[in-house]
Specification:
The protein is mostly helical. About 55% of the residues lie in helices and about 5% in strands. It is built from seven helices and two strands. A two-stranded antiparallel sheet has the order 1-2.
Length: about 150
């Protein structure tokens, strides 16, 4: 289903290690302060983070509703609360961490990380997120709704 492979950079001149580390360094320079801010500031208290635009306009939960609070909980190693806020959050965090490590290793080796998804995958993802959004807004499906 997921084929993520490392491929040598083709047609490009050999670049030095410093240049290969530029992109990860720039992303880390943005991610570390943002993560530190989310760790320190409590999203359960109003005023620190914007509210969900989709929820404000429709009154419904979107697939991302609760992700800020879930990420805050994950940073504090509270996986159960993160799952309560958004059941997808722990899985998305693991997948993002996996991709980050694979990308950094590929950059270290001087390769590119490529993803060749199956043709049906985008449709399946759309159907999954639509179903998740629909189900989390049904009465009685509090397990999927942010608490």
């Amino acid at each position: 289903m997921f084929t993520i492979t490392e491929r040598p950079t083709v047609g490009a001149p050999e670049v030095g290690r410093r240049q290969r580390w530029l992109a990860p360094a720039v992303i880390a320079a943005a991610a570390v302060p943002g993560t530190a801010y989310l760790y320190r500031m409590n999203p359960y208290e109003p005023g620190h983070f914007p509210s969900c635009i989709f929820r404000s306009l429709t009154g419904l939960y979107c697939p991302g509703c609760g992700l800020t609070r879930a990420t805050h909980d994950l940073l504090h190693l509270d996986v159960a609360s993160a799952f309560d806020r958004n059941p997808l959050a722990p899985f998305l965090a693991l997948f993002a961490g996996y991709l980050a490590v694979r990308w950094i290793v590929a950059r270290w080796r001087g390769n590119q990380l490529t993803w060749e998804p199956k043709p049906w995958l985008s449709t399946a993802m759309f159907v999954f997120f639509f179903a998740f959004t629909f189900l989390r807004n049904l009465p009685g499906m509090e397990l999927l709704s942010p608490v």
